[in-house]
Amino acid sequence: MKFNFKKISAIASSVLLTGMTLGVAAAASFPAPFKAAGVDGTAVVYGLGADPMDATQANSIANYLSSQMPSTGTPTGDSVLLAKSSDNLNVGDAWTVFSGTVDDADLSTLLADGTYIADDNDEFKYEQSITLGAPTLTHFRDSDYEDLVGSATKTPVLGFKISSNVAVMNYTLDFIQDAESDIVSGDLDDIEGSDITLMGKTYYVSDFKNGTSSTYLGKLTLLDAANTAIVSEGETTTVNVAGKSYVVSIASLTTSQVKFIVNGETTNSLSSGSSFRLADNSYIGVKDLFQRDVSGVTGNAEFSIGSGKLEIESGSDIKLNDDTIQGVKGYIARSTGTSGSEKVNSIIIEWKTDEEMFLTPESELVMPGFGAVKFTMNDLIRPTEEKVTIENDGDTSIGLTVPIKDGDASFNILYGTSTGNFTGIGKASDERLATTNTSTLLFTEKSSGTDYDKWFVASYATTSEAESYLLKATVQYNSGTNRNETDIINVVTGETLCDDYYLGKACKIGDVSLTIGAIAYTSGGNETVSLTAGTGVSFNTIYTDGGLKIYLPYLATNNSVTQGAINFSLVAGDNLAGHSDDTFYLFMDGENKEDTIAGGTEFNFTIDNDGTTTNALQVSQVNNAGTGGASGLEVGTGSGNYEAYIVDDVAPRVIHYTKGDPDYAEVYYPTGDSETYAQVYLTEASASSSTTSAGSMVFTDSEKTSWSNKNVVLVGGNCVNSATAEVLGVSMSDCLNAFTAKTGAGTGQYVIQSVADKFATGKIAVVVAGYTKEDTAAAASRLILPGSNIDTSTGKNYLGVVGATGSSTISAVN
To answer: Is the pTM of this model over 0.90?
Structure first.
């Protein structure tokens, strides 16, 4: 059985609310990314020929991961998803994406229409509804939240950070026919002693004061989970409340007051409508007194015992068990009654935050006092991410790695001098990237006999689909045909796609169509080919396989500030930041939720020199605003790694690495149905979410086709696990020496090491292996030890030492 632990982000003064707490590791710690990946992205792999102990450890890790899989689906019980069928709750959206009012059509139990029956048996129909506030789904980090969920380091999260005095919701019980009561001694006598239902919970009306306001009635006192009985002088009666028995008798009785004895505890003197708090924090309230007025007649008292007391006084914070609940106010609207009576129009409960509160997958938001409703958030719905990398390549050049249709395309986009100024597009003067914003590209393989262009990109795009290819052209003279010809080669796959093509011939590469133009070939001189783009084809953009558009630099001869335009003759003083020899803005644009190409929010990275003695090119800013951009948040205390989400339906995620020199950046872009959104539910307080089924996630190394496209935990060293050998780059035959040489782990030691992109782009392989099978078992135990905070992000490496008792100590190598 899986227990779904969530912290409660609410005022904790209610005796009606209890919660369990469980420490939560930092966002980069295991089981991330395996927890987030779910069944479609997680595998645990052990060696087919390994000792059975390795299989046991693999299953232990899999069982642990299964217990950590995200909560998904509709919660049990009465609930409503705060979204519309046509509009999910995306980053930057508020709850009000669910437009209108929540009523019985949404919460059929909590907000059911009903009939209120007063103590004099008059009936009044009512409706219930909830009006939502407007908290917004944002990317935030907050030390109070980290304390709440037990994180010991900086942990940005996508969720709801709700400041104090922010409206969460208003609840209204509206009497269709206003409830009327006689006024007796300043009380609404016909309502006292009745049961009333608020948000699916039944309360006993112990007292109801008329008050003096012309707009609102006075104080309404309610007992929760109450049972009513009558006890006579000289007798006892037993009442059961919330599974507990109360034996009640009368200690003394007058015409106006009574003292009870409840389970041996004597109350104060109580008048009709008043209550007394018992030792177990339940309450006994007096409904009515029947004092003997003739000798020999026995008096009695009608009472109610409830597990808690709620006081609603118009315009004031409600009180729960005599404690004020800050931020939850009540209003009891009156309407005009007949002579000697008053009418109740509606009861309104206004919930505003009294202090900063949070709603995330790890933190629920429970209504204080009433405890009847809560807001809960499932794990973020986000497709598998692909990764784009922008990083320095040899001081004077900046490189780009883009996952395109055929695989990862790695090439350079700008190069410069040792002074840090740009001088060309590509990697160097003899390794250029040929680009243009026109329909005709001149690819120069050689200029005056010297290498010149190394790559070009051809992309095809419509409003709904796109594909790109990283290509190069070779030029030669064919003596057999007596003509100049060209070959078009796919750089990623190495395949020659258009072999011996000549002037006027159309080269088709997927949906990309290129017409071969003039071909010039001079041995030891110039070797060029002109390529004309077909419909929908461009030479200055590249699209990831998932649909992210990236604008490549192209040479502009004017002061253009169009995406990608650059003029190397313009210097910083020309005030063309992002398009001159001093800085370049690398623009990107994702899809919208309808998968419209470039329909998202455009963002950019600033490329310039790092200001050190080497003047290495770097990514200095995101969206023109420093580390991670204006909304960048550090992941892990002191890491220098800043995370930001672009605010739109897809929400591309950016990591800006600023700790070392030079700085670089990665973009994580959701693929497939790219939309990112939160599932937030308004539910009854007792509801719980279902969980993702882990399914089968344990495989042997021989079943590579079943696990190679997933995030994988590799159990066992290279001696017994071929997958581990592949990750470490060693053979299985030279096992122990190679294992120690690669990992640093010798006798009585183990390693936990994370490597990215080894089997599939954007996926992580974590090696969990020891020098012996016993050491491997210690590594697996340490990995899943609660609170171990093993960081499983790319490049992390831990070395563990196993003691004589089997316990281990572990230290981070990097």
So the answer is: no
